[in-house]
Amino acid sequence: MSSASPSKAPAATFGVDWDKAIPATWGLVAVLVAIHVFGAWYEWHSDMAGFWDGLIFERDTRFRVSVGGQHAGLVQAGEPWRLWTSVLLHVDLLHLVMNSLALLSLGRLLEPWIGSARWMSWFILGGLSGSLASHYSGVIQSDGASGGAFALLGAVAVIGLRVRSRLDPREATLMGPVIWGFLVLNLALPIALPFIDGVGHIGGLVAGLFLGAFIGLNDSPALRHFDVALVFAFVVACLFGWHYA
């Protein structure tokens, strides 16, 4: 009597990890909130406005510049550090909340796939790309984490397309029509809301599409070391910039 043939090993599964911790995402959002609150305190302490006004409402040019905001004239005058310190600043509470929600959503999808250090490094590269795009396109003043968020959105859109065949139907829909529809909608927002820096969004998005396409889920040690080094350099550079703000 012949023995039964061994059963095939189950195929490897891949999907969105809804339960894995996302420390870089939560850490970044906490930093953004802390910087915004500190900015409101600084505005009140410097007699520029009341604490609650600085926390909730739109901040004027003088205040935004005083805490490291991007301004074309000052960047051209020899203060390039504003291109990166401005990535962590926001104009008002609504701006902060919208970017924080976007980062939390994108972090839930992407950080478990690429890791915390790479998630942060891609945010930084997208933020810098957005700042550079804004500056060289002639935008006078632009602050916020939107460029970094768009980089993460572009990266997850590309990676999602590349792994869709390995996802269950619901996640495949999320990583296809849902993500790309959300991307197109956000690109169209500056048309309806001209005060939004659409050029900065595009700058961050281009960086994210490139990173997702050419690096993606590549887990080489050299790239991991680069991610960690970039995050460290960004922190040091921001501290340097704020020291001279």
Describe this structure in words.
With about 240 residues, the chain is mainly alpha-helical. The chain is built from eleven helices and no strands. The protein has helices spanning about 25-45, 50-55, 60-65, 70-75, 80-85, 95-115, 115-135, 145-165, 170-190, 200-215, 220-245. Helix 6 runs parallel beside helix 8 (about 145-165) and helix 8 runs parallel beside helix 10 (about 200-215). The relative contact order is 0.14.
Q: In a nutshell, what does this entry contain?
A:
The chain is mainly alpha-helical and 245 residues long.
* Rounded Rg: 20 Å
Helix residue percentage: 55-70%
Shape: globular
Largest sheet: none
Give me the strand/helix succession.
HHHHHHHHHHH
Distance between the termini: 84 Å
DSSP, total strands? 0
Q: Give the count of helical stretches.
A: 11
Strand fraction: under 5%
Structural class: mainly alpha
Any low-confidence stretches, pLDDT <50, length ≥5? 1-12
Q: Kindly state the mean pLDDT as a whole number?
A: 90
